[in-house]
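ok so for the tutorial part 2 we go from a plain amino acid sequence to predicted structure tokens. step 1 is just haveing the sequence, like this:
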Amino acid sequence: MFQGFYRLTSGMLTQSRNLDVISNNMSNVTTPGFKEDRFIISDFQSELLLRTGNKVKAGTTVIGEKSMITAGDGTVTDYSQGTFSTTDSALDFAISGNGFFPVQTDDGTVYTRDGSFSLDDEGYLTLPGVGRVLGENGPIYLGTDRVTADSQGRIYDEQSDALLGQLMVVDFQDYDQLLKGEGNIFTSVGNAVQADAQISWRTLENSNAYPVEQMTRMMASQRALQSSAQIMRIYDQLISQMTTNLGPTQ
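step 2 — the prediction. this is what the tokens look like for a chain of 250 residues:
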């Protein structure tokens, strides 16, 4: 019975962390280019199947010492592409396929799938609140928002058809190199390589965190948390009763 306290407490802490991840996904369902996170939960049963196999028992490994508590095994990011939405802004872009837009900040280069760009006070293409968008020759200077663009990310002046700049798309061989920041911004500990991607103009990539799916996960996690709390109260009552019944007698 006392071991059950550890299992239930660990379950409550784990579900609380899971709810934090889901809440962050829910708050970014309308953030362009946002990639949802998933909290991976590990317990003794899943570790047992991992070590011994479910149906195929070949290549099994010794279990050894393994705690029976429920614990978080880490948070992973789902990089799958979101749906596209057409916009009226000439400075909105979306990447079709893998890749990221590099953005220059005071702390170095960051990467994003959010193509909801604008112009700063000096006429440079910028991601608001983050920094200037990088092209093949550095920050992209447009000087005007009356532009057109093609599928290669080349941006032209709407009136003269003069080439103003070209968007650059980069990618990574291993997405484990990416570190997620706030919202839809990533940093990397590895080197980015230029990617050959199609770019859609006047289009934004939607978040891949879907409200109904996130709400379903949230309800399941809340029920698991509430169930653990209720059973803990029952345990507490049983222990109190046991202590009373086994107390000193005359």
